[in-house]
Inverse folding.
């Protein structure tokens, strides 16, 4: 480094060359002293100063020189520093390079391996280049062959144009298999050329004759080989025909002459085979649907075996076995299966709609199983249906062909609303037959009715609804009714294709002998209807597309609601209301109708949950509409049942009023008044001598236990209205226990008991009661109380206990009345409320009872003051004793339960 490496600003005074030579890096190497360096710098300056011989010292040259030297030294120092830094960087770089080389040496093996891979890649590229060259050569060869074939075609065509075809005939007849194959290709091409171009001469006619002759000869050879069982010749002919015209003609010969189709053409024999005893149960809705017809099962088994056997033959003979198998299967479905199913459906249709629907569903399910088994076989044996020539298309696949054949087979029966209409007809038929006994009973009652009763109106409603052309178009909201195309209505239900005999048989089966009253709704009949409806729903799942299943399920369910609701339960409840004659004793049949209606509602709800809901839940609109229809049906039935129950309560109340109206005016005023009776009754309440009362009670008990007639003062019986009322109440109770339970039973009995209690209170205000008549009245009340106690309702027991205590006011002496009304339930009543009953005592005026009990205006009368404050404690204790004494209670119980004694008293 002999000089500055960077450019500097020009200076006014430059350094002397000798001085500049001193400013070299090499000068500072080795032994260096600043003194020698300064002397060397000043040497020339000193010499110059001596030469000038001036006395004054001029420092400027020295200053300029030293200043420039300092600048140069600073630059040298900077250059040296930069050089050091560069060397340090180079050292670090050298170290990194060294490390890299070490790593590269460690990966030498990988590099070698990669080199081999690269070598292999280059070799492959050379191979690919060779392949491309080969393909180009092959293309050139094909072009050459095509040119040669074109030349041959021109020569063959010229021969035909000249009226001859010797070369092509020789090739076809003498060229062997290869010659026939080439002749077929040439003939096909010549035929195509002659059709595409309008050529003069007779070449076209000659070519067409040759093609026709060639095809006939090949088909003849194929037919002969097929009959002789020569698959090799068949395959040769099929291959040539495949090249000539696609091979459709030989496929048709193979399929048309197949033994399977020839054997199934004999309709008479097939008809005899298809006859089965299965069809006898098809029209019986009470029997489970029979399995698919045995003849159809035999046919399907034969088809499965035939397909498996023919698959091997077709794969060995035809270049495109998949296409041939498709043609074979299409022929199987279109000829054998379709004709068989049509025959079965025609036979079933002659029997009944139900037989037709069952046959349709069973054949549909069994055919679906056949299609699935054929698909599974074809998937497993795919190798058999692969075309030999990959350029031959075998689309669509066999699975698609099977699906299309299956759909086409049942389209005439399920397209649009055809199936739904049929199902609707079948349900109307079986539902009508199931309700025929009920409907016939209604019709007889209608004829016997004198006026337009509710029953007559209900039957007219059924008749008009049944004769309507839209009888089964029961839809709601999003379930549109389909137009009727068959003109079917319920009026023609007994003129179906099976004739009146089949309909009569259906009616006889569904309304056969039963122990139940057919005029009442029956759970058994409802279960029959629900089973038939569930079967229809099952058929709809089989025969309806999944997208339309919710709508069809809604239609079928609304038909069920129409029959069970409007035509069965509603009419039965209307009938029950119409039968409630207020002038005669209620037969309580309406209660059984209400019980049946309740059972039917629960059955329909369970049927909806299990059979309908899973099918419609996927469609929110239809689901909402069906639920609304069901709820409306249940609400309507419940409202009518409540109305019927209220009418029954009114009828029961009215009949009790009629019975009580038979009470004679003097029933409680017998002529022979035994004073001893009144005396005994007074003694019971007044005496404090318990021994005397105990003797009387023991005497009464002995008489009852020994069935000995008591003294004359106990000889009294219930009057006729009491016995009739009690018997009727017991009858009502026994019937209600059979048909109601829980809260319904409690409410019904409470209503009857409350109304009867009110009737009793009103009834006892109408008759004058004498002393002995009070005993008769008490006996009646005891009987009423006994009947009400069967209800086992504490509220009613309290009411009739109050009634019994009210009856006691007719038993005692007048002066004891005030004590009686001051105890028990009577103490809770205002004395003025008891006045109407006290006035019915025969001695009311003579004994001045109004004054005794203090019910006069102003609250004064007789010895009393109208209150119970002055009643003696002894009287209170005696009354409590009579109420709580066990002997008296036992006496009353034995008196109430001793049937022989009661009969004797009657």
């Amino acid at each position: 480094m002999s000089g500055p490496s960077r450019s500097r600003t020009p200076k006014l005074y430059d350094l002397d060359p000798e001085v500049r030579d001193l400013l070299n890096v090499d000068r500072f190497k080795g032994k260096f002293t600043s003194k020698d360096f300064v002397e060397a710098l000043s040497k020339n300056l000193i010499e110059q100063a001596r030469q000038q011989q001036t006395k004054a010292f001029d420092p400027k040259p020295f200053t300029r020189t030293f200043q420039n030297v300092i600048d140069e030294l600073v630059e040298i120092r900077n250059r040296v520093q930069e050089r050091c830094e560069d060397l340090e960087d180079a050292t670090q770089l050298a170290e990194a390079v060294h490390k890299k080389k070490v790593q590269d040496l460690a990966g030498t093996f990988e590099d070698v391996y990669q080199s081999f891979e690269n070598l292999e890649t280059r070799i492959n590229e050379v191979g690919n280049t060779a392949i491309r060259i080969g393909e180009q050569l092959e293309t050139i060869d094909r072009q050459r062959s095509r040119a040669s074939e074109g030349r041959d075609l021109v020569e063959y065509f010229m021969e035909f144009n000249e009226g001859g075809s010797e070369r092509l005939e020789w090739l076809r007849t003498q060229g062997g298999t290869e010659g026939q194959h080439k002749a077929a290709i040439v003939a096909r091409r010549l035929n195509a050329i002659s059709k595409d171009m309008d050529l003069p001469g007779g070449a076209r006619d000659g070519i067409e004759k040759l093609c026709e002759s060639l095809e006939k000869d090949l088909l003849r050879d194929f037919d002969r080989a097929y009959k002789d069982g020569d698959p090799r010749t068949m395959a040769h002919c099929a291959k040539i025909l495949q090249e000539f015209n696609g091979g459709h003609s030989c496929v048709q010969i193979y399929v048309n002459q197949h033994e399977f189709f020839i054997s199934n053409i004999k309709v008479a024999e097939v008809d005899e085979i298809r006859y089965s005893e299965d069809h006898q149960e098809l029209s019986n809705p009470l029997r489970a649907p029979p399995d698919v017809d045995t003849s159809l099962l035999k046919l399907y088994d034969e088809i499965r075996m035939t397909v498996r056997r023919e698959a091997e033959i077709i794969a060995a003979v035809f270049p495109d076995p998949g296409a041939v198998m498709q043609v074979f299967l299409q022929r199987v479905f279109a000829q054998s299966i379709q004709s068989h199913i049509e025959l079965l459906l025609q036979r079933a249709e002659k029997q009944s709609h139900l037989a037709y629907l069952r046959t349709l569903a069973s054949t549909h399910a069994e055919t679906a199983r056949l299609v699935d088994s054929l698909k599974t076989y074809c998937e497993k044996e795919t190798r058999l249906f692969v075309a030999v020539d990959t350029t031959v298309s075998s689309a669509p696949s066999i699975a698609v062909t099977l699906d299309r054949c299956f759909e086409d087979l049942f389209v005439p029966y399920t397209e649009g609303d055809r199936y739904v209409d049929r199902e609707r007809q079948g349900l109307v038929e079986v539902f009508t037959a199931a309700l025929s006994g009920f409907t016939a009973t209604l019709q007889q009652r209608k004829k016997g009715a004198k006026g337009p009763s509710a029953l007559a109106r209900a039957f007219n409603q059924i008749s008009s609804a049944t004769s309507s052309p839209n009888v089964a178009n029961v839809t709601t909201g999003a379930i549109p009714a389909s137009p009727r195309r068959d003109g079917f209505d319920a009026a023609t239900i007994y003129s179906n294709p099976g004739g009146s005999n089949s309909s009569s048989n259906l009616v006889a089966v569904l309304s056969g002998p039963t122990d139940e009253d057919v005029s009442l709704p029956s759970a058994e009949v409802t279960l029959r209807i629900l089973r038939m409806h569930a079967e229809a729903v099952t058929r709809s799942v089989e025969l309806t597309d999944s997208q339309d299943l919710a709508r069809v399920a809604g239609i079928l369910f609304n038909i069920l609601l129409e029959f069970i609701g409007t035509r069965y339960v509603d009419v039965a409840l209307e009938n029950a209301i119409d039968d409630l004659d207020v002038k005669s004793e209620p037969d309580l049949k309406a209660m059984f109708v209400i019980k049946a209606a309740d059972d039917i509602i629960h059955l329909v709800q369970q049927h909806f949950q299990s059979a309908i809901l899973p099918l419609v839940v996927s469609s929110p609109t239809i689901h909402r509409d069906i639920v609304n229809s069901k709820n409306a049906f249940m609400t309507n039935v419940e409202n009518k049942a409540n109305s019927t129950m209220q009418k029954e309560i009114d009828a029961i109340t009215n009949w009790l009023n009629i019975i009580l109206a038979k009470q004679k005016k003097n029933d409680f005023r017998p002529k022979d008044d035994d004073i001893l009776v009144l005396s005994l009754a007074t003694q019971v309440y007044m005496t404090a001598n318990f021994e005397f009362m105990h003797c009387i009670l023991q005497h009464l008990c002995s008489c009852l236990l020994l069935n000995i007639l008591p003294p004359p003062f106990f000889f009294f019986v219930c009057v006729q209205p009491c016995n009739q009322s009690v018997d009727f109440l017991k009858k009502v109770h026994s019937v209600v226990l059979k048909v109601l339970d829980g809260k319904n039973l409690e409410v019904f009995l409470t209503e009857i008991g409350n109304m009867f209690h009110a009737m009793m209170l009103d009834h006892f205000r109408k008759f004058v009661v004498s002393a002995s008549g009070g005993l008769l009245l008490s006996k009646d009340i005891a009987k009423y109380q006994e009947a009400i106690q069967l209800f086992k309702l504490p509220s009613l027991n309290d009411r009739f206990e109050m009634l019994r205590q009210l009856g006691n006011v007719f038993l005692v002496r007048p002066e004891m009345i005030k004590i009686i009304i001051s105890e028990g339930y009577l103490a809770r009543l205002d004395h003025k409320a008891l006045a109407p009953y006290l006035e019915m005592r025969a001695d009311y005026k003579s004994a001045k009872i109004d004054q005794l009990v203090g019910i006069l205006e102003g609250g004064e009368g007789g010895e009393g003051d109208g209150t119970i404050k002055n009643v003696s404690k002894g009287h209170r204790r005696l009354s409590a004793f009579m109420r709580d004494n066990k002997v008296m209670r036992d006496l009353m119980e034995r008196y109430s339960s001793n049937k022989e004694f009661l009969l004797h008293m009657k």
The chain has a mean pLDDT of 75.
